[in-house]
């Protein structure tokens, strides 16, 4: 599904066939989840293929590596150029791009010694989540910020996301909503959350979330459209039965939520400011003016 015999990847300085890229059984990343990665999208626009917010994603990748003490010295401009080259070699335009930094063989619990950069891409049309998701409050909390660097996109953190997402699916929901250690709403398993009440948007403040690039884009759109938006801490009860809510993330884009714990969001989606934000986001990523 992600690759075939023709797929080209970038690995440790070379472009090669995905099938030829081996995995090191002794790598520190495989054993301990000690890797950092990004999720980026490219879009087919009037001006050709455009990677949305490449600079922001690669700045975050470098920051994640730094926070994890993984040596990594590629420049943002180099990473962006390599990604365009990868897309061209594969003939992709609307695609999902997965940069991944892994570490060399090392069974000790010390910092990474040598790192390897992989750039993978696969074709991807619309967001990975359908609209109108039924979500449930998860019994799995987001990682405690005193135990992890939650603002870094680290492989091992996603075990928490897998547990929460799978638990929600097993219970008949589409996705999970994870809380922080104090019971405040944090985020989805792979996306940030907003809810709407009386024309204002609310989203969890930073602290226990991955502060998403899409979340930041929503702030920019709100400023452009003069939609009030507040970053604050709140409990799930405060957003239940609100006018509307959505998840946002690079892969998810902006997806409407149908209900939280079976309590529906009440307003017709097309009459909400959230739907304006969704529409504007679609124009923005395709390089059209707001
Ligand atoms: N939270 C988590 C846990 C995520 O995995 C993601 C996806 N990267 C997001 C939020 C949204 O981040 P972004 O908008 O930068 O994709």
Automatic annotation (TrEMBL):
Q: Does the keyword Transferase apply?
A: yes
Recorded catalytic reaction(s): these are: L-leucine + 2-oxoglutarate = 4-methyl-2-oxopentanoate + L-glutamate; L-isoleucine + 2-oxoglutarate = (S)-3-methyl-2-oxopentanoate + L-glutamate; L-valine + 2-oxoglutarate = 3-methyl-2-oxobutanoate + L-glutamate
Per the record, the domain of life is Bacteria
Q: Which Gene3D superfamilies match?
A: 3.30.470.10, D-amino Acid Aminotransferase, subunit A, domain 2
Cofactor names from the entry are: pyridoxal 5'-phosphate
Give the GO biological process terms: isoleucine biosynthetic process; L-leucine biosynthetic process; L-valine biosynthetic process
| Alphabetized Pfam families for the sequence | Aminotran_4
Cell membrane: present as a keyword of the record?
no
What PROSITE patterns would the database entry show? Answer: AA_TRANSFER_CLASS_4
- GO molecular function terms attached to this record: L-isoleucine-2-oxoglutarate transaminase activity; L-leucine-2-oxoglutarate transaminase activity; L-valine-2-oxoglutarate transaminase activity
- The residues the entry assigns to the signal sequence are none
Which InterPro entries did the record assign? Aminotrans_IV, Aminotrans_IV_CS, Aminotransferase-like, B_amino_transI, BCAT-like_C, BCAT-like_N, Class-IV_PLP-Dep_Aminotrnsfr
> Which pathway does the record list?
Amino-acid biosynthesis; L-leucine biosynthesis; L-leucine from 3-methyl-2-oxobutanoate: step 4/4; Amino-acid biosynthesis; L-valine biosynthesis; L-valine from pyruvate: step 4/4; Amino-acid biosynthesis; L-isoleucine biosynthesis; L-isoleucine from 2-oxobutanoate: step 4/4
**Its EC number(s):** 2.6.1.42
Q: Which UniProt keywords apply?
A: Amino-acid biosynthesis, Aminotransferase, Branched-chain amino acid biosynthesis, Pyridoxal phosphate, Transferase
Instruction: Say what the protein does.
Output: Acts on leucine, isoleucine and valine.
- Similarity field: Belongs to the class-IV pyridoxal-phosphate-dependent aminotransferase family.
Kindly provide the name given to this protein in its UniProt entry. Answer: Branched-chain-amino-acid aminotransferase
Q: Which organism is it from?
A: Chryseobacterium defluvii
Name the gene for this chain: ilvE
